[in-house]
Design goal:
This protein is mainly α. Helix content is about 55%, strand content about 10%. The chain has a two-stranded parallel sheet with strand order 1-2. α1 runs antiparallel to α2. The chain is globular and about 30 Å long.
């Protein structure tokens, strides 16, 4: 049985645009959602791409880019007011 792939959210919008940084962020998002094989596949494909735009397109095939700051807020379990 093949598992259905659902693109996980990844805090790419507002992140440092260095392609290696974006690969790392997207890969971590995939791995956190039990998509380790897809993370490896994405990384290989991005590294073989011929342009920055192509690389971004490949990353977007695997993850749903979200704003860094909004993602941080949604990931908090609670707010500590102390």
């Amino acid at each position: 049985m093949t598992k259905k792939f659902i693109k996980p959210e990844s805090p790419l919008i507002g992140a440092d645009g260095n392609i290696f940084n974006l690969i790392a962020i997207a890969s971590r998002s995939l791995k956190e959602n039990n998509y380790s094989e897809e993370a490896e596949e994405m990384t290989k494909r991005v590294m073989q791409s011929s342009s920055y735009e192509e690389a971004l397109g490949i990353i977007n095939e695997y993850v749903e880019p979200v704003n860094v700051y909004e993602h941080e807020i949604s990931q908090r379990d609670y707010i500590d007011y102390e």
